[in-house]
Amino acid sequence: GKLGRYPPWPGKIVNPPKDLKKPRGKKCFFVKFFGTEDHAWIKVEQLKPYHPHKEEMIKINKGKRFQQAVDAVEEFLRKTKGKDQASSHNSTEEKNRHNSSEERGKQSAGEEKRKAGLSEGKAKTGTGEGKKRVSSVSSERGSKSPLKRAQDQSPRKRGRPPKDEKDLTIPESSTVKRVMTGTVAGFKWPPSVSEPVKDSDPHFHHFLLSQTEKPAVCYQAITKKLKVCEEETGSTSIQAADSTAVNGSITPTDKKIGFLGLGLMGSGIVSNLLKMGHTVTVWNRTAEKCDLFIQEGARLGRTPAEVVSTCDITFACVSDPKAAKDLVLGPSGVLQGIRPGKCYVDMSTVDADTVTELAQVIVSRGGRFLEAPVSGNQQLSNDGMLVILAAGDRGLYEDCSSCFQAMGKTSFFLGEVGNAAKMMLIVNMVQGSFMATIAEGLTLAQVTGQSQQTLLDILNQGQLASIFLDQKCQNILQGNFKPDFYLKYIQKDLRLAIALGDSVNHPTPMAAAANEVYKRAKALDQSDNDMSAVYRAYIH
């Protein structure tokens, strides 16, 4: 099979369920992964002790969910420290244990069990090794998938996790020794939304906007990642917002996914779709950008039409209304690949008129259409923490569930086509105006002899404190304008938001003023820098 690489991941050795046999061949242990509540058999040689390799792992893995896993390890160690005075946290001792375990290769299984380890995560997914685990309580579709056969042949067989993790209790004297790092093999969802889960971090939610007279937003939260709990909570399925049962793990859809546009946002999205086990075919106007994703397991599409015709659901994420229209209506475009039942999801931030026109032509050919622009930046895209605003075909929104969970922390369904475009422009109008205000304040501080750093410190202590404010101010103070969100695109969004105001005769004077400052920055060749480079428009 194709080669897949997964990052090192922290976990601990636990006792396997009684009915689960050990894989034949090389010695391995049953590992519970921190932050995912997943379990897998891991070979001895793929295990490394936690403490000596902690710093190295943190450098490799910058993602939020990895940080949560590390936090879970530290919390676990704090809890067990009081119980187990005999266990040493000294990293040198951990390393010595590991080294001695390698030398004593023929030790008894009982002694081996107390060694900790790290799965390097490079494995042939064709045999099931290193593959993301499908939950043992899989949906009908999941249980019929090739994954099941792969697992049957796998040296890392998986079975149903025990309902009560009392079975997995380990001797306190070996608790710290068992904290290790290994391949992250998948995710498990909590049993129910109504039941509060201790230590949970609710990262993925569906929100459905009621289009009836009720103004309330109806929503059902779905935890994406990740409960950290000493007890197994079972595998009860939870109800999604559409009242259909959701499988007990984030299982990738078996539909073939297409993706058009590998820019700052698209690249991170595709990477996360692949990591979650989706089958993805990619296309980009400049084909070289596809190479990295081909290496990660994506397929290459020669034209947008070919991608749409060979895939079930095709996503697109391009720069502006013109690019979105050209992609659909141009030569070898999306429309040429649309047949009845084909699905198209446009994630570009465009105006409502553009997206309505595209929806009409797609639907006229028998296709299904969803608009799903995303709020976020390159970093959030890479981390799979985008906010997705969707509107259009409700059934298609539901079909995209595993994709949205892979790329985002939250998705909102806003009703009919055009609503998501309008909402997205309003969100970016607020963000763009705020960015210009930040730049205005920092430059005014400078020219009046005030410390810009002190201004930032004061703002960070007040009610305006936010990740956005801090990051953008840091960019400016460091003179680092590497794009996280292109300045030219925030100016485009301000322009479209002002036009939206015009269409309903609503004043947008703040956005209009900010737009002028961004236009000035563009004239100063800042288009391809981050939006924080609007600062340079204020420098005399």
UniProtKB/TrEMBL annotation:
One of this protein's GO BP terms? transcription elongation-coupled chromatin remodeling
- UniProt entry tagged with the keyword Phosphoprotein: no
Check the record and name the PROSITE patterns matching this protein. Answer: PWWP (PS50812)
User: Gene3D superfamilies from the entry?
Assistant: 2.30.30.140, N-(1-d-carboxylethyl)-l-norvaline Dehydrogenase, domain 2 (1.10.1040.10), NAD(P)-binding Rossmann-like Domain (3.40.50.720)
Residue ranges with Basic and acidic residues bias: 79-123, 149-169
- Which molecular-function annotations from GO does this UniProt entry contain? DNA binding; NAD binding; NADP binding; nucleosome binding
Q: What is the name attached to this protein's record?
A: Cytokine-like nuclear factor N-PAC
